[in-house]
Amino acid sequence: MKVAIITDQHFGARKNSKLFHDYFLKFYNDVFFPTLEEHGITTVVDMGDTFDSRKGIDFSALSWAKNNYYDRLQEMGVKVHTIVGNHTAYYKNTNNVNAVDLLLREYDNVTVYSEPTEVMLGQLPTLFIPWINQENEESTLKLIQKTTCPCAMGHLELQGFRVNRQIIMEHGLDSKLFEKFTRVYSGHYHTRSTNGTVFYLGNPYEIYWNDLNDTRGFTIFDTDTITHESVDNPYKMFYNIYYEDTNYQTFDTREYENKIVKVVVRKKFDTKKFEKFIDKLYASNIADLKVIENFEIQECGDLEDFESEDTLSILNRYIQEAEINLDKSVVQKLLQEIYQEACEMV
Q1: b/e map of 201-238 (b: 16 or more CB within 10 Å)?
Q2: In the prediction, which pLDDT does 319 show?
Q3: How would you class 300 by CB atoms within 10 Å of its CB: exposed for 0-12, middle for 13-18, buried for 19 or more?
Q4: CA–CA separation, 131 vs 95, rounded Å?
Q5: pLDDT (tens digit, 9 = 90+) per residue, 10-41?
Q6: With DSSP H G I counted as helix, E B as strand and the rest as coil, what are the percentages for the chain, rounded to 5?
Q7: Who contacts 170 (Cβ-Cβ below 8 Å, separation ≥6)?
Q8: Distance between CA 134 and CA 182 in Å, rounded?
Q9: What's the maximum distance between 2 C-alpha atoms anywhere in the chain?
Q10: What is the distance between the alpha carbons of residues 151 and 118, in angstroms, rounded to a whole number?
């Protein structure tokens, strides 16, 4: 049996941005739903962080999610297994109050897992592992040791995997706890990475600048062979354009409509031509445009990483490079939690 796995959809992201929801919808309409139909897939596993804010839901975001995602899955007769992630659990020390349970009760095809549970996917016993917190950590670890399921799926925070292209997680659970499984699939980190047994599958689309040029999508899992294949999302939101006295007349700007763009100036001898280049970009209806003209940074060799960093990446890099007599991973985790709280405030 083939199953679709998707994770970290973050409905309502960027303060319920219409720009981003239109971008998300293109993925669902052009990639996700056609692939389900093509492969005859009738089961979806959602591995957490379905909604973006753990403290509340924008009614417009909820309406969007129901109209464009859940209603369609119900109409298609698709069964949805939804695992609670850290963004959908209201409290930090328990999963009992969570967004997916409270918001999706009208859907009889959606089952929510707030505690670790052994589930049959086809003929494959699978352990679902929601966000591990103070309340369920002991029982979860005991079940991980006890279970005979060859496969686990969850929303895990494990050491040694990439959070994004710039950062490797230095705290969390040891992945050795999961060596008994044939395959472990997880959400939480938005970039794809693996150690051969544990697979972080990544989220479906770009949401922040540090997602730039990082392939996203969802996964088709075969329960008979315990193997998977990635289905890539061809659509991007973030673009870097490198300007080197580029001919504005021949430069094609059509792909930048409703996109977020940075123009990095590497060479500019004719100011008027550069202004016409920028005017042409604006005329293509880009969503946001920034221009970087720092020639000292250009010479450092790490320009692409510098340009694509978002606020959290910059904070983490600053802590990593700081000369402080503290556990830097603890400081980084605290900053990450504070930053997430700030992003969820309206």
Answers
A1: bbbbbbbbbbbbebebbbbbbebeeeebeebebebbbb
A2: 75
A3: exposed
A4: 7
A5: 999 999 999 999 999 999 999 999 999 999 99
A6: 35, 25, 40
A7: 159, 328, 329, 332
A8: 27
A9: 70
A10: 10
| Residue 204 CA, distance from chain mean position | 6
**Interatomic CA distance for residues 340 and 54, integer angstroms:** 10
Tokens 């591995």 belong to which residue?
Answer: 47
Task: List, in sequence order, every residue forming a beta bridge with 89; answer none if it has no partner.
Answer: 98
* Tokens standing for residue 192: 């794809």
Amino acid identity for residue 211 in this structure: D
> How confident is the model at residue 187, as a pLDDT?
97
Cβ contact 95:89 at 8 Å: yes
Q: In the chain, where are the structural domains located? A: 2-232, 238-295, 311-344
* Displacement of CA 75 from its chain's centroid (Å): 26
Residue 299 is predicted with a pLDDT of: 46
- For residues 327-338, one letter each, b for 16 or more C-beta atoms within 10 angstroms of the residue's C-beta and e for the rest, the string is eebebbbebeee
C-beta of residue 201 within 8 angstroms of C-beta of residue 219: yes
- What local confidence, expressed as pLDDT, does residue 341 receive? 64
End-to-end CA distance of the chain: 43
3 contacts 45 by C-beta, under 8 angstroms = yes
Which residues are CB-neighbours of 200 under 8 A, at least 6 positions away? Answer: 161, 162, 186, 187, 188, 189, 191, 192, 193, 194
What does the block give as tokens for 218? 């969802």
DSSP-assigned states of every residue in 205-259: S--SGGGTT---EEEEEETTTTEEEEEE----SEEEEEEES--TTT---GGGTT-
Task: Give me the residues of the chain with pLDDT under 70, please.
Answer: 294-313, 317, 320-321, 323, 339-346
Q: What is the CATH number of domain 2-232?
A: 3.60.21.10
pTM for this entry: 0.88
Q: Are 266 and 298 in contact (CB under 8 A)?
A: yes
Whole-angstrom Cα distance, residue 246 to residue 319? 38
Give the model's pLDDT for residue 300: 47
